[in-house]
Design a protein that fits this description.
5-stranded parallel β-sheet; globular; 16 helices; alpha/beta; single chain
Length: 709
């Protein structure tokens, strides 16, 4: 959409041609000209336009990449600057043409408005019964050929499409294996080389524009800490205020856009990520967050694609949930977005979560201020480019990297705060909750707080378990991505009868684990995220080594190497704790450190197992993930019942990591968060504010009730 000024209207080859001077655009085309070509029946469309008058041109996408509104003309711009257009400003209203007596125009004459109304009229969102014109905002980086159209503004008396749409069936994205010699491996390695050779400059992205503050911080690779990948401009209070204002401006149009139009943006984002952005986002995740190719693939590519596609499917299931209606009454529920804006705070450890936390509320019609982790800015910037390329309007999601307090404080101080979508530490989430609680009287609405926080995730082994299955689950569950998954196994309980065999098998596998630069595809592990994490983990390992011995809390430490000469490397470490309440059995370290307690299974196995179940349940305040390994079905049932509150995601004979969208909705309770289950409709419902509508078709005409006689 753009605002233009006509400077000529004439007929050419049987068509009317309207020439506009572009006066207001999103960027880049001020003063350029566009010729608007009308359809053969456009005499009615042509009347009413006057030279020297500003008009608004609305457009939406048609098959073949062209744009049109299906009611007046399909036009063809002669200036490529129209590729980056968006809604701004209003125009004057000339006389609307009238049809001759007895004549019915072939199409509705265009209605020229003095100011742009909402993008669509509000309606019940159970089905798509849409307004006449669904503008496609033509945003920077869209890189598409544009056709502008003239046509009526959105009005609820017009209908362009009427249907209950069925979205494409969501299926989990297949994981690519990047085997030696494969084409996918060659492409990813080429992209890694390109990014290493091309440092980037990243700025906050507010209202569709880069905002360079001059307050820069470096972006480095954790596994090669002297490798500078670029710099990013840090946002502060002024940028946050601008982001909130942009979210406020974008909210009415975005919330009013028909649900299927919003859904189409995220479905397109999934396709673009699958086909065009996969290598770029995987490489940015590998270099900036030190993930191996496999860990980047299952996260940045597969899981984020799944979030985009499954969230659309979950959203339609919510919209379809409607009340019953007795005879003479129509009851329905309108699923509105929240009041205000949503604040998304995303972690470094999952690129997919960084993408999901702002986009899940946005799908539901909310606008978002997004603060990424400072150690994951490069991958976050790629996600932002992907979303804009998919057609996300300016101001819907505003990207504001920066220090926690500099961004968080002005956001939480804003009375427009409608919700918080958070993944991070328990301490940070509790501090955020306290801050909102202290200011609760200042908000005109109760902000929705949704958070997934820490975990002290367990693996409980029964004497009937298989040794090889247990050892592999412990290694993968504890040490993939350097143990920096909130679901990573960090404490385990192994029966004494199995421990010698488990120890031998686990030790043999750990000796084969490669640790180093993730661009070397032979490595199983990279580095931890930064120097602060490295110091915390190294300190805990050295402390445990110092407490070994017959009178200490620790029996032995397997592994335990750490160095920071080239990168922040912590080698896989197993602490065998005699004391089941030793510090590393209770506290989350968030790194490749697994603490194992060997429990005595001699005697009555059911009683002994019940005792260790109580120990597992009472050791940590967290309740995120946990696993039990047993071939004895009675033991599985016993553990499932006893540990019902100990884990939001509970696994039987599997490692406690690796939840898949659509298969294992993810989230925990107790101190691990609000358990709103990312990757399910339970999370999406938190970003909606239902409105119940009752319509009575034949209202009573008397105030008296029958019992009154």
């Amino acid at each position: 959409m753009f605002e233009g000024r006509t400077y000529g209207v004439h007929r050419e080859n049987g068509k009317l041609r309207f020439s506009f001077e572009v006066t207001r655009v999103w960027k880049g085309a001020i003063g350029s000209t566009v010729d608007i070509w009308t359809a053969s029946n456009s005499a009615a469309c042509g009347r009413g336009y006057e030279a020297g008058v500003s008009y608004l041109i609305y457009a939406h996408e048609l098959p073949g990449g062209q744009l049109g509104d299906g009611m007046c003309s399909r036009s063809r711009p002669t200036h490529s600057a129209t590729e980056d257009l968006a809604a701004l400003g209003g125009g004057s209203e000339p006389q609307r043409p009238q049809a001759d007596p007895g004549e019915r125009p072939a199409v509705e004459p265009p209605r020229i408005e003095t100011a742009p109304p909402p993008l669509a009229t509000p309606r019940s969102r159970g089905c798509a019964i849409d307004g006449p014109t669904r503008p496609l905002a033509l945003f920077p980086r869209a890189r598409r050929r544009i056709c502008a159209t003239t046509g009526p503004m959105p009005r609820k008396e017009h209908t362009m499409t009427s249907a209950c749409f069925e979205v494409p069936k969501a299926v989990n994205e297949p994981v690519r294996d990047y085997a030696p010699g494969s084409r996918e491996r060659e492409r990813l390695q080429a992209e890694l080389t390109r990014q290493l050779a091309t440092p980037v400059e990243i700025a906050p992205r507010i209202d569709g524009r880069d905002v360079r503050t001059g307050r820069t911080a470096p972006i480095t690779a954790p596994h090669a800490k002297r490798q500078v990948l670029g710099v990013f401009h840090q946002a502060g209070r002024d940028e946050v205020d601008a982001a909130i204002a942009a979210a406020r401006r974008a909210k009415p149009g975005w919330a009013a856009l028909p649900w299927e139009e919003r859904a189409a943006i995220f479905l397109r984002a999934a396709t673009l990520l699958r086909e065009r952005y996969r290598d770029e986002l995987n490489a940015a995740t590998m270099l900036g967050q030190s993930k191996t190719a496999h860990q980047a693939e299952i996260d940045a590519a597969c899981e984020l694609i799944d979030f985009f596609t499954f969230n659309v499917e979950f959203y339609t299931r919510i919209l379809a949930e409607q009340p019953i209606s007795p005879a003479g009454v129509w009851n329905r529920v309108d699923y509105r977005p929240l009041d205000g804006f949503v604040f998304a705070l995303t972690p470094f450890n999952f690129t997919s979560i960084a993408g999901n936390l702002p986009t899940a509320p946005a799908l539901c019609g909310n606008t978002v201020v997004w603060k990424p982790a400072s150690t994951a800015v490069r991958s976050g910037a790629v996600i932002m480019s992907l979303l804009e390329d998919a057609g996300l309007p300016p101001g819907v999601i505003n990207f504001v990297p920066g220090p926690g307090a500099a961004v968080g404080d002005p956001v939480l101080d804003s009375t427009e705060l409608g919700g918080v979508h958070f993944t991070g530490s328990t301490d940070t989430f509790q501090a955020l909750w306290r801050r909102v609680g202290d200011r609760i009287a200042s908000y005109p609405q109760y902000p929705r707080l949704v958070g997934e926080t820490g975990g002290k995730d367990f693996v409980l082994v029964h004497p009937s378990a298989d040794v090889d299955e247990v050892a592999v689950a412990l290694l993968r569950g504890a040490f993939e991505y350097q143990g920096q998954k909130c679901s990573a196994a960090s404490r385990a309980y192994v029966p004494r009868s199995l421990w010698p065999a488990v120890r031998q098998r686990l030790g043999d596998m750990l000796a084969e684990v490669g640790v180093g630069d993730v661009t070397d595809f032979r490595n199983f592990m990279g580095a931890v995220i930064d120097g602060r994490s490295h110091a915390k983990l190294a300190g805990a390992i050295d402390e445990a080594i110092g407490k070994r011995g017959p009178d200490g809390d620790i029996d032995e430490v397997l592994g335990g190497r750490h160095d920071d000469a080239e990168g922040w490397f912590i080698h896989p470490t197993v602490i065998v704790a005699r004391n089941p309440k030793y510090r590393t059995m209770c506290e989350e370290l968030f790194g490749p450190v697994l603490t194992i307690h060997v429990w005595d299974d001699a005697g009555d196995s059911r009683t002994r197992f019940g005792e260790v179940l109580a120990l597992v349940d009472g050791t940590s305040p967290c309740a995120l993930t946990g696993a039990v390994f047993a071939h004895d079905r009675d033991a599985v049932a016993q553990a499932t019942a006893a540990l019902r509150e100990a884990a939001g995601n509970f696994y039987v004979n599997d490692k406690p990591t690796g939840a898949v969208v659509g298969q294992q909705p993810f989230g925990g309770a107790r101190a691990s968060g609000t358990n709103d289950k990312a990757g399910s409709m339970w999370n999406l419902i938190r970003w909606l504010s239902p409105r119940t509508i009752k319509e009575t078709f034949a209202p009573p005409r008397s105030w008296r009730y029958p019992y009154m006689g």
